[in-house]
Prior knowledge:
This protein is mainly α. It contains 22 helices and eight strands. Strand 1 (73-74) and strand 2 form a beta hairpin.
Amino acid sequence: xxxxxxxxxxxxxxxxxxxxxxxxxxxxxxxxxxxxxxxxxxxxxxxxxxxxxxxxxxxxxxxxxxxxxxxxxxxxxxxxxxxxxxxxxxxxxxxxxxxxxxxxxxxxxxxxxxxxxxxxxxxxxxxxxxxxxxxxxxxxxxxxxxxxxxxxxxxxxxxxxxxxxxxxxxxxxxxxxxxxxxxxxxxxxxxxxxxxxxxxxxxxxxxxxxxxxxxxxxxxxxxxxxxxxxxxxxxxxxxxxxxxxxxxxxxxxxxxxxxxxxxxxxxxxxxxxxxxxxxxxxxxxxxxxxxxxxxxxxxxxxxxxxxxxxxxxxxxxxxxxxxxxxxxxxxxxxxxxxxxxxxxxxxxxxxxxxxxxxxxxxxxxxxxxxxxxxxxxxxxxxxxxxxxxxxxxxxxxxxxxxxxxxxxxxxxxxxxxxxxxxxxxxxxxxxxxxxxxxxxxxxxxxxxxxxxxxxxxxxxxxxxxxxxxxxxxxxxxxxxxx
Length: 482
C-alpha cells in the first residue's frame, strides 16, 4: 500500500475558530494555509506577527495644550469661536484615531495584539473626554504596546496615563483631601474584583496615589508637595506607601490573577466560566509573573478551547463584526464616517466605552434595535444598499450622522477577486456549504441552504454566485457568532 508523507491537515472549523477568537477572523486562503501547519506553529505565527507595534499616529505628540489655550485668549477672555473650532478638531482627531485603530484590526498581520488591546480597552475602560485627543492617542498606544507583555507593566503604565488619571479624577487626589475614585476602581475593576478588599484598603490606597497627576503637555508627573507621606496600612501591611507600592501589593495577591484570567476566559473562550480551568490558568499566570503571551498560548493550545461548546458561543462585538467583515473581504471605505455610524448604531464606539466598567458584552450586544441592523450590515457594506437607520445618541461623541439629504449609502471597495479564488471551481450546489465552512461557526441547515440557492440566478457567473451567497450567508443570524 502506497504511503504518503503529507501531514494531516487541521480541520477548517478548528482553524476558523482560532482566528475568530485570537484575531478578527481570516480569509479562506489564510485558513487553508494555516490548516497545512501544526496548531502550535499557527499559534506561534500569530504571536510572532504581533511582536511589532505600529503606534497610532494622528495627534502630534509635542502638542502643547497650555500654549494653545493662551493663544485663544483675547483681552483676558476666551475666544469662543476658536475654542469651538478646537473642540471640533479634537473630536475629529479622536474619530481618526478610531478609524486608524480599526484599520490595524482589519489588517493581515498583528491581529492578535489588536484583539488583546481591544480586550484591555474594555478592561481598563477610559472614555474620551472633551478637548484632548492627545491623551487618548497615548492611552491607545499604551494598551497596544503592552497588550501581550507583562500584566504588571500594563497595569502600571495604563494607571499613569493622563487619560486614566483624568477619567478617574486622580488629578484632584491630594493629601488632606483624598479622592478615592481611582483607588476603588483599580481594585474593583482592574485587579482584585469585589469582595477581595476592604473599604479601609481603598481609603489608604487613595492616600498612596496622592500626587499622581499629569502636566498640560499630557505627561505623567509625581507632585510630591500634594502627596501624603504618612504611613498607610493596606492588605494588612504597613509602610509609607506610594502609588507604585500599591500596584505591587495588588500584583502580589493571587486574587488578581484569578480575576484577570476570569475576564480573559469569558472574552476569549466562553461567557459561562469553567472554575477549574480558570483556577489552573490563574495559577500558571501568577507563577509566570503575569506573562500575557504565555496565558494566551496556553488557552489557544488547549484541547478544550476547541470543544463544540465553545464554538459559536461568542457574540461578536460591533467592532469585531466590522473589523472581521473588512478583513475577510479586504473592504475599504471611501470615508471614515460610515464606520463610526456602524459603531454608534450598534453600541460600541472605540475610545467611548459607556463607563469605567467597559462594555457589558456577550448577549448584551444583541437587542431588538440592533439585531436587524447587524443582519443588514453586509448589504450596506458589500452592496451599497440604502441605510434607513438612525445612529444611537452617544452624547459627547461629536460624530456627524450618516443621514443626509437623499439616500444614505456606504461607498466601499471589496476585493472579490482574491476571495473568489478558493471557490472558483466549486459546483453551484456545493457553494453554500463551502462558503459557510469558512464564514459560520455551524453547518448550514437544510432550509438555509435551500433559501440561499434560491437567491441565485441562472445566468449568473461563478463570481456573481459567490458574491450573492456570501452576502446571504453573512446576513444569517449565525454570522453574529464566533
